[in-house]
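Please decode residue identities from the backbone states below.
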């Protein structure tokens, strides 16, 4: 499976992306969320 990190500054958009797409059926696994690019880069290093 391909790992996905959802990054957006708006909570409602992150939730929409998470729940509107059948990620698992498409071969993806959501590993986390970030609110900005810097937070995303920090999470990527640990993932």
């Amino acid at each position: 499976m391909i790992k996905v990190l959802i990054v957006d500054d708006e909570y409602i958009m992150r939730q929409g992306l998470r729940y509107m797409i059948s990620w698992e059926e498409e071969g993806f696994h959501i590993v986390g969320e970030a609110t900005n690019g810097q937070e995303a880069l920090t999470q990527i290093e640990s993932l």
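Observation: Strands lie at 2-7, 28-34.
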